[in-house]
Amino acid sequence: MMLDRFYPVVDHADWVARLAPIGAKFVQLRIKDRPEDDIRRQVREAKAAAAAYGAQLILNDYWRIALEEGCDWVHLGQGDLDGADLAALRGAGIKFGISTHDDAELERALAAEPDYVALGPIYETYLKEMLWPPQGLDRIGIWKRKLGPIPLVAIGGLTPDRLPGVFLAGANSAAVSTDIIRNADPEWRTRQWIEATRAAGRSMVDRYSRQTMLPEVGPERQALVAKATVLVVGVGGLGAPVLQYLAGAGVGRLIIVDRDRIEEHNLHRQPLFRMADIGCAKVDAARDALLALNPFITVDARCERLVPNNAASLVAAADIVVDAADSFAVTYILNDACKAADKPLVSASVIGLKGYVGTFCGGSPSYRAVFPDMPQQAQNCATAGVLGTAVAVMGSLQAHAVLSLILGLQSSLEGRVVSVDFQTLAIRAFSFHGAVEDPEALLPFISPSDVTNEDIVIDLRGLDEAPASPFPRALRMSVDDVGRGEWRPPDEAQRVVLCCRSGIRAARAATMLRTRGHRELALVALG
Fold first, then answer.
1. Rounded Cα gap, residues 36 and 43, in angstroms
2. What is the pLDDT of residue 202?
3. At what angle do helices 328-341 and 308-316 cross, to 10 degrees?
4. What fold characterizes domain 228-431?
5. What is the mean pLDDT of the chain?
6. What gap in Å lies between CA 416 and CA 357, rounded to an integer?
7. Entry pTM
8. Architecture of domain 6-212 in CATH?
């Protein structure tokens, strides 16, 4: 049996007359605390309104009235099963659905051979206090496996943006009440629901069919993909394929962070963008492209730098974090935030014809445990060059690592680094399980706003690079000046903050000071 995917539940016959003309085809009338003559009047009015527009009326609870008024459907709660004459209902050709909330209720419902089973509440409800905690998407999958061909109706806390996950988990229909009848414009909201259920139903069956048929995925794990939130920092050569494949796979929410604008030299390795996008903010163009690819996901675009001040809140909002920023400072900032939040960090880098990808934190050793020191010098694609195919491969591996984490695949990159030489196509991997971060080696990054008047600030940029420092009291030195040892902090307890564009020179100078015994150190990457 096929149920309409949109299942509104209303508390008065007038609602049936309002919703049926705009496309509601399966409407439950749930009347509470009214005299029997009023209930019968409303049932007759609702039946007539439904019949006029080819809709189906389901009467809640009142199975005797359903028999006497010639209804086609009745919905029964667990309490109704105590006295309902199911044989009489079957004899009259009346179909019925049954509410369930736990395993015992499901077994009882199955024994009654219902025409559908309802499960709820799926999500937390705010306008009605429930006796049961939210069931969640996983429970939908469990229920559907037990029901087999019997349709499953999900109810409780549903909204249109939650429908893809609900249907992917195995629900056949989505019931809704207060989100419509308490809306300022119920007809408009009903049209939204109808379109969302139709679109989600069509798309969820076809869009992900080639991956859900995999035994490692299936509808239940696809639902995990749909409810996942992934933070992607950097929308460049790595970030573009990461975002395209995660959006295509159906990751429910993508948070993307990048402050750059698109330039023509980006296009050879960032096919997410087009010539018409040149000059636009990367995150805005990426959001538009991703939603054009998959309109059933949410894309949160943040046109800003990733800095210590915003890293913690961004990481807290995500289940998994992707470092695609081509910046050592960003990598270490994300590492520290992910370690503190116990979130996995999928990091990659490509320089020239070599690249690596690995998964850190979130149950694996941190990036600092494996790479405690920043390199003495670092190149990027602007100085060393890069092939678009190289970043495409490594970005795809990052996306695969994310999906592996969501799906719980044994082949994940947790605690491993895979490196690729794109000239020889040599692929190597090593495990870093057991690596430990040395707290004495920690050189934390801070935001410029975290610098205080008590700090000694050293700006390591040359005057030709930065004629003016953002810190008026900053000392202007080079890394070589610090290395010669001619300057020492006047107070060993006073914090020294070292600044440069990328953070690499600052880390080198801080290491020199640390070897001389100074421990109060911090780094600022000014960008």
1. 10
2. 62
3. 50
4. Rossmann fold (3.40.50)
5. 91
6. 8
7. 0.69
8. Alpha-Beta Barrel (3.20)
| pLDDT band (50, 70, 90) for residue 298 | confident
Q: What is the mean pLDDT of residues 178-206?
A: 86
If you count DSSP H runs as helices and E runs as strands, how many of each does the chain have, helices first?
Answer: 20, 20
Joined together, the tokens standing for residue 453 give 């008047």
**What 8-state DSSP symbol labels residue 264?**
G
Contact between residue 312 and residue 341 where contact means Cβ atoms under 8 Å apart: yes
Domain range annotation of the chain: 6-212, 228-431, 443-525
| pLDDT > 90 in the chain, percent | 72
Query: What does DSSP assign to residue 468?
Result: S
Q: Are 457 and 475 in contact (CB under 8 A)?
A: yes
Q: How far apart are CA 297 and CA 386, in angstroms?
A: 31
pLDDT digit string, tens, across residues 68-79: 999 999 999 999
C-alpha–C-alpha distance, residues 14 and 46, integer Å: 7
CA 470 – CA 144 distance, rounded (Å): 60
Residues 6+ apart with CB under 8 A from 281: 258, 259, 260, 261, 262, 301, 303
Residues in CB range of 488: below 8 A, 6 or more apart: 516, 518
Q: Buried b vs exposed e over 2-33: b needs ≥16 C-beta within 10 Å? A: ebbbbbbbbbbbebbbbbbeebbbbbbbebee
Number of C-beta neighbours around residue 255 at 10 A:
21
Phi, psi of 434 (to 5 degrees): 100, -15
CATH of domain 443-525: 3.40.250.10
Beta-ladder partners of 414: 359
What is the percent of the chain with per-residue pLDDT over 70, rounded to a whole number? 96
How far apart CA 85 and CA 82 sit, in angstroms, is 9
**Residue 351 backbone zone (phi > 0: left; psi -120 to 50: alpha; other: beta):** beta
Q: Model confidence over 1-58: pLDDT tens digits? A: 678 999 999 999 999 999 999 999 999 999 999 999 999 999 999 999 999 999 999 9
Quick check: 419 and 347 in contact, CB under 8 A? no
- Is residue 130 pLDDT above 90, yes or no? no
CA quadruple 315, 317, 318, 319: dihedral, nearest 10: 110
